[in-house]
Design brief:
This protein has 15 helices and no strands. By secondary structure, the chain is mostly helical. It has two domains: 2-164, no CATH class; 170-375, Methane Monooxygenase Hydroxylase, Chain G, domain 1 (Up-down Bundle). α3 packs parallel to α7.
Amino acid sequence: MKRITRLWRSLRALAHHRRVQLALSIRVTIAALVALALAQLLQLPLPLWAVMTAVIVTQMSVGRSLKATLDYLAGTVGGAIYGGAIGVFIPHSSEIALLAVLALAVGPLAFIAAIKPRFSVAPVTAIIVLLIPIMTHASQVASALDRVMEVALGGVTGLIVSFFLLPSNAHPLVGAAAARALDQMARALGELLAGLTHGLDMDALHRIQDGIGQALVQMNAVGAEAEHERSAGLAVGPDTGPLLRTLLRLRHDLVMVGRAAITPLPEAFATRLASPIARLGAAFADYLRASGAALIAGRGPPSLDSVESALDTFSGEMAAVRREGLTRSLAADAAEHFAIGFVLEQMHNNVKDLERCVAEWAGSPKDAGRNHSQSD
């Protein structure tokens, strides 16, 4: 009995942890079943395409489903019209003629799909419209119309299921993606600032920066889905642009820190600055992680007091080093390290913008969003 209880608790924990993925699997299954039932009810020639379309357009969020549906329908209609016209107006009774017509149908559409990815299904549709009549002895026009009806049925079914059955909006996914990016930035900042005292090789630097870049690319993609939802009136939430731009600026700050970290500080300065740098790095990292957690939880931003206190300590030590004239004897490449003070001050300004973004996402007073838009 205890074993069954533990198994049940484990399954409940797994379902809770993977609830978004579980909801997607349920939506996809229901969309496929409904599409098949409707296609059979309407006696469509090939229910397969309705079912496949429903599965393809049922995505993680409503915004992504909307975009997938519109793109798939656009590619299908374009491919059906073009493929049907080629099949009707160019005779292809022989095998050589059929090969030539197929090349003429696929080539231009593949070129267009390479330029406009939303038409990636157009070449496939043209192939189906041209070749299905050979097997079913239907006309090219009937084949094109059937294809459009099947895809339209599957697309609309998938979109309706995505909207009404366990719907998942993209805005919470944006917050989660931003939190992952902020966590990566926090971990990267510790490694980069450690490089100021120990040095950092180029391979390690590229690895750190690439990881942040991938996280921001994912956030940008989810942000586009959220904006599709907002523009279509399917969801209400803050504009994702300010948050993404703030994270991009923070990433640029880390790039500048990385440039300075390629070569370590001279030993005399490392002794003086190692402790203030470590304290400031820890404060920034803690703030980035806490901001990510606040975005996920929908609560207000954390306090900046520890960051500002650590920045004051670092700035005071830097000023003391300059007053003592210790920077005058440095070589030009070593003197570049002292631009780090400007970079960290700029990072402080950017985390203030992050503070306003988190406040806006938490539904804080309206002036937070207005102030943020002015800073952008």
